[in-house]
Specification:
CATH architecture: Beta Barrel
Distance between the termini: 36 Å
Oligomer: single chain
CATH topology: Thrombin, subunit H
Largest sheet: 6 strands, antiparallel, barrel
CATH superfamily: predicted glycosyltransferase like domains
Number of helices: 2
CATH class: Mainly Beta
Strand content: 35-45%
Radius of gyration: 15 Å
Length: 116
């Protein structure tokens, strides 16, 4: 059985508190579209959390950090399709940073977070 050092726990706490925007638990299906050598690949997943600047998700398949993807998210007011960069990818979960959200889309996410 493995152990976790106090240093690694402090490092995790520091990275969480260093986030620019608060996150809210949010779980809905998502669809990702990304370019591969063979064309556009569609991948499905489920969100874990969301913020004004991105989301965390469980995603089928493998993603590469730095890869650009299109994400379809079913928000309560209306669906959101946006472009994002993969900022974290592991076998367990991935993190995405939204690119180019409109003020209206940011407001929709902010309103959603207020009701979480």
């Amino acid at each position: 059985m493995g152990t976790v050092s106090h240093a690694s726990l402090k490092s995790q706490d520091a990275s969480i508190s260093a986030r620019r925007h608060a996150r809210a638990l949010f779980s809905v299906p998502i669809t990702l579209h990304h370019l591969t050598g063979g064309g556009v690949r569609t991948t499905r997943g489920v969100t874990l959390d969301i913020s004004e600047c991105g989301l965390g998700a469980l995603v089928q398949g493998t993603l590469q950090v730095g890869e650009t993807v299109a994400i379809d998210v079913l928000l309560p007011e209306h669906p959101l399709r946006t472009v994002a960069i993969v900022r974290h990818a592991s076998k367990v979960q991935s993190g995405f940073e939204f690119l180019g959200l409109t003020a209206e889309e940011r407001l929709q996410i902010t309103n959603l977070m207020g009701h979480s």
